[in-house]
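Lab meeting, item 3. Inverse folding demo.
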């Protein structure tokens, strides 16, 4: 008889359990000379949304300072109505033709703003390279802070969490400069227009608050191994219909085919809103759901900005590093030898193929009644 692999569940107590190891290198909130601050954050959707908790703590630590955000054009709409920022500006640094022109534009913008403190929450080769150029030009502010203790940062805190959740790494960065931690989940400011649009969509399909669950059943096209699959989600539809719940599918262009396949057998019970929502309408809809079931996808982090219970299904990615922060979020994963491989292609896809709907039903049922 073949023994089934153990199904593991992860909560915040598991994912964020490491003790933050820090030394206060400089108590920046007490420095009256810091009047204008730039936060740099360009990454993928999940990382951007996680960092909004960090942005909230920075705002609270510097209530009188002028706070600016530098992000990518794709994410500008997430901050269109965010009162924490006096300015949100973008330069498309991801373009290949004209890349050096974009770098020059970015440097000129930073120099013109005369920032007193720059906080690099991106901390990759590109952000470090730009900040190094800024220092070599003699135009960098006194205080440059990043998530790693290396050049070009002028504040080099100890960094001893290389395998930690990105949220903890950013939190430790704040602690090193005396910024207290008060925010433990994403903090988005959703415009009234997004709330209204979400409510109109729900009303149009006869969806009452808490009468439906949301499936985030896709992933970016480059991460197909993170998908649990249409057959599994179809079986989960049957479970929720038996519970008297309808199902709403959310996603973007990359998930369209997946959502159509799941919705097709249930034209009345499953509402396919894939491709019909703007970014901030996603959490506005999820706030009305009774539960959320998701793959490891950026959209799950948007949904985690609500209080709705969510179950995230992980296979090739490590829940300890990718689970959206929040006490209402649990992640599940089979304990296989090949787990956390992060492979983009797989011949057997055991981590998802062996994770049957029956295995996760107790977890989603518990979340639905939380």
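The presenter then showed the designed sequence:
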């Amino acid at each position: 008889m073949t023994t089934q692999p153990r199904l593991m569940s992860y909560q915040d107590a598991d994912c964020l359990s490491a003790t933050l190891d820090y030394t206060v290198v400089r108590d920046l909130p007490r420095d009256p000379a810091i009047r204008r601050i730039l936060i740099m954050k360009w990454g993928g959707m999940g990382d951007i949304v996680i960092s909004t908790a960090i942005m909230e703590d920075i705002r609270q630590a510097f209530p009188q300072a002028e706070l600016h955000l530098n992000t990518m054009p794709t994410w500008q709409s997430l901050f269109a109505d965010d009162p924490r920022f006096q300015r949100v500006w973008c330069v498309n640094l991801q373009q290949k033709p004209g890349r050096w022109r974009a770098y020059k534009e970015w440097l000129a913008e930073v120099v013109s703003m005369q920032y007193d403190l720059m906080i690099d929450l991106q901390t990759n080769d590109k952000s470090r390279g730009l900040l190094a150029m800024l220092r070599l030009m003699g135009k960098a502010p006194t205080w440059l802070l990043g998530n790693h203790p290396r050049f070009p940062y002028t504040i080099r805190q100890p960094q001893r969490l290389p395998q930690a959740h990105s949220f903890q790494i950013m939190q430790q960065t704040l602690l090193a400069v005396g910024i207290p931690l008060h925010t433990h989940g994403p903090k988005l400011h959703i415009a009234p227009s997004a709330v209204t649009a979400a409510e109109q969509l729900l009303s149009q399909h006869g969806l009452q608050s808490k009468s439906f669950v949301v499936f985030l059943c896709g992933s970016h096209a480059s991460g197909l191994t993170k998908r649990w699959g249409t057959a599994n989600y179809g079986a989960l539809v049957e479970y929720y219909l038996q519970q008297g719940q309808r199902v709403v599918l959310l996603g973007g262009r990359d998930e369209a085919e997946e959502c159509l396949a799941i919705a097709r057998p249930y034209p009345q019970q499953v509402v396919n809103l894939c491709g019909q929502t703007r970014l901030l309408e996603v959490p506005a809809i999820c706030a009305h759901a009774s539960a959320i079931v998701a793959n490891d996808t950026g959209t799950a982090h948007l949904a985690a900005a609500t209080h709705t219970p969510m179950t995230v299904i992980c296979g090739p990615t490590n829940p300890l590093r990718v689970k959206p922060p929040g006490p209402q979020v649990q992640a599940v994963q089979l304990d296989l030898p090949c787990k956390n491989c992060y492979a983009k292609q797989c011949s057997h896809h055991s981590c998802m193929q062996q994770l049957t709907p029956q295995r996760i039903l107790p977890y989603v049922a518990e979340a639905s009644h939380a």
